[in-house]
Amino acid sequence: MLEESTTLSQNFLEVISDPQPVTIVSYQATPAHVVNTWSSYIKVVDDSTFLVPAAGMRSIEADIATQNSQLILTFGSMKFEGTEGPGRGYHVYATGEFVEAGKYFDLMKADLPWLRKVMIVHVQEVKQKI
After folding, report:
1. Which of 45, 52, 95, 105 is deepest in the core (most CB within 10 A)?
2. In which domain of life is the source organism classified (predicted)?
3. Residue 105: beta bridge partners?
4. pLDDT of residue 112
């Protein structure tokens, strides 16, 4: 059975723990903007918030600043059993905000000195896809 939630489930956290690419889409922009990061860079703050480092991501940042654009983030891993066999994947529907100072920025900068800003992701819905 496919999971759907407004928070980050234990099954989702298993997937995010496997260092895999993560795709971030600002889909209300015209055209949509797409960037990537690694799941190993993401820090979970609580069951509905996580942090993503931004070295670039200027297109997504501009979309959020000018259009309050909604985001879809995709996560997946072959390491964990899904609904039809090996492989589990999720779409996370969220909003985001970029910060360049403060406790979340300092927390991320300590581990990732190359980051320019931090995107705070506010989860609205998590849907398992496989």
Report:
1. 52
2. Bacteria
3. none
4. 97
Give alpha helix (H) positions in 9-102: 10-17, 58-67
Can you read off the two tokens belonging to residue 68?
A: 């309050």
75 has a pLDDT exceeding 80: yes
The Cβ of residue 118 has, within 10 Å, a number of other Cβ atoms equal to: 24
| Tokens found for residue 109 | 């900068």
What global pTM score does this model have? 0.95
With tokens 């496997």, the residue in question is 18
The CA–CA distances, whole Å, from 31 to 14, 28, 102 equal 32, 8, 32
Quick check: 53 and 76 in contact, CB under 8 A? no
